[in-house]
Design goal:
The strands form four sheets. A five-stranded antiparallel beta sheet has the order 6-5-4-1-7, with no helix packed on it. The protein folds into two domains: 21-95, SH3 type barrels (Roll), CATH 2.30.30.40; 98-153, Roll (SH3 type barrels). It has one helix at 2-14; strands at residues 33-37, 42-45, 54-58, 64-71, 74-78, 84-88, 92-93, 97-100, 105-110, 113-120, 125-131, 135-140, 143-148, 152-153. The protein is elongated. It has 162 residues and is mostly beta strands.
Length: 162
Amino acid sequence: MRARIIALVLALVAGTAPAEPAEGPVTGLPMPRFVSLKAGEANARRGPSTAHAVDWVFRRAGMPLEVVAEYEHWRRVRDIDGVGGWVHYALLSGVRTAIVLDDLAAMRTHPGGGREVARLEAGVVVRVPECAPVHCRVRVAGQTGWLPAGALWGVRPGETFD
């Protein structure tokens, strides 16, 4: 512990910040990463235990959240507005979702083109089962289509998954 503190002080004096860890110390999963809110309500606390005060309450099941830290059974998360806190991991899901950023974003049948399936308002939460570097397949209200990845919060630029 002392060596870590000394390394941090030396890095601050040298004007360099230590690099963020590439993976979470508890799960080994990438950090930061996106998850979704499993529960319809979740307390965001000041610290990683029920002894800490509740600063915020998330009330939208499926909302995408970004995990920025881990400690035992707790994950520090933030939402699209940067608001957050420590949430118990049981209230989170690995199901990928995203928030539409562009107003009236055209959801299409194929990546980068095809017939328009729907127009989505900014703020709509969509499921994201697949992403290519430029476009993501999304599902909402029984419709499936593709949106540009840049029109979504909950997906990293160039991120791919399926």
